[in-house]
Structures are given as C-alpha cells and as structure tokens.
Amino acid sequence: GDSVTQMEGPVTLSEEAFLTINCTYTATGYPSLFWYVQYPGEGLQLLLKATKADDKGSNKGFEATYRKETTSFHLEKGSVQVSDSAVYFCALSDIGGATNKLIFGTGTLLAVQP
Amino acid sequence: DAGVTQSPTHLIKTRGQQVTLRCSPKSGHDTVSWYQQALGQGPQFIFQYYEEEERQRGNFPDRFSGHQFPNYSSELNVNALLLGDSALYLCASSVLGIEYGYTFGSGTRLTVV
After folding, report:
1. Cis bond upstream, residue A114 (ω within 30)
2. Which residue, A38, A66, B55, B80, shows the most beta carbons closer than 10 Å to its own?
3. Of B45, B105, B106, which has the smallest distance from its Cβ to A102's Cβ?
C-alpha cells in the first residue's frame, strides 16, 4: 500500500540555519502531497501542499517540490526561527480509496535554539 | 469562525471500559474523519463519515465505531479499551471531495490505565 518515509529526528538547529527534512513516498498513482505542522499541545495545521509533479508548495518561508522521478517531497527553509520548533509531518492523499484519506509519515521533531 | 472542536481534551480510562469522544466540524464542512496518533507516531486513519454513513475504514478492529449526526458532528466510540489504545485522537473535518481542505482539531488525549 501507499506509504510515506520521513527522516528521523530530532533535528536540532541554531536560529537562521538552513533546514531540510527529507520525505519520500510510495504510491501506485499520483497522489497530492502535503506537509503538516504540529505545535506542542495542538492539532495538525496544513503548512503547504503540491497536487502534481513539479509543483512547488510554499508558505511562511517553507518550500517543497513534488519530484515524481525521485518520489520525494523534501521540506526546506532558508532561515529557521525559534518559533518554527514543532513536529513536521509529510503526508499523501490515498487516491485509491473512497475517501482520499491522508497517509502520514512518522513525523520529524525540529528544535531551533536561539 | 470556530474551527474543529473536540471534547474532552483529556481522558483517563481503565482497561475494559468504553469511551466516547466527540467532534464538531468546522462551519460549512460536511465530512468528518478520525485519526489515531500514538506517541511518537504519525496519525493513522480510523474512518470517515459523510451523510451519517461510514465511507471508508482503516485497519482498526470493530471495537472502534463511530457515528455522524444530522448536524455533521461526530462521535468515536471505543469498546473494551486496551492499554494500546492510549493515544491522541484527532478529528478532521472537510468538504467532501476537497482533499486539501482538511481542518484538524486539537485532539483528545486518551490514557488507558
């Protein structure tokens, strides 16, 4: 079945450092891809999305490009802030089912130090 | 505009008991999905409800059941609780067919002792 693999954390960076969180996926079709963020004690918030190959999703300085040839959707940010500390989840929509349910990776904890 | 509201926020139950979790979807949304997030893991799809019917179910036993009401709110019921059911239960609402329109609630933290 479809699946998502994320790099394990935690990822610890200093403020203003460059961030990359790797995400690869396995899918039989061409799903939409997402990054969600979860701040402590909160639910999931959609950070960005890409719905087809070569699409670039972006939001709040974060970017990710849908790479069909490498089945990847890596999250990047040029300069992280302390407020970016959270857990980041890569996800895909399961287009083979009845509901387009989301399939998530295990999450990557990002800790940004001042 | 209120987003997705879940209640209660925290709950402690004993093995073998039954629990009911509640979700009110975002205004304008007609579909409710439930996810289980174990500690240190990503959310796992439990099931989705639309028009008071279960549309799809994930790999969860029949101890997990749900219901959707005419006002689109939903309940998740878990019978015969196991220690392994301890998790954060997330409700996500959406408009049917719009896959990137999910809005998640803050979740109910269930602890089974």
Report:
1. no
2. A38
3. B45
Residue B101 predicted with pLDDT over 80: no
Write out the DSSP string of A12-59: EEETT--EEE-EEEE-SS---EEEEEE-TT--EEEEEEE-STT-EEEE
Chosen from B4, B98, B104 to mutate, greatest number of chain A CBs within 10 A: B104
For A68-91, what is the mean pLDDT? Answer: 96
How far is residue A91's CA from residue B64's CA, in Å, rounded to a whole number? 23
Cα–Cα nearest to A84, from A54, A108, A110, A57: A110
- Token reading at B84: 């392994």
* CA–CA dist A63, A49 (Å, integer): 9
Report which of A53, A59, A54 is spatially closest to residue A88, judged by C-alpha positions.
A59
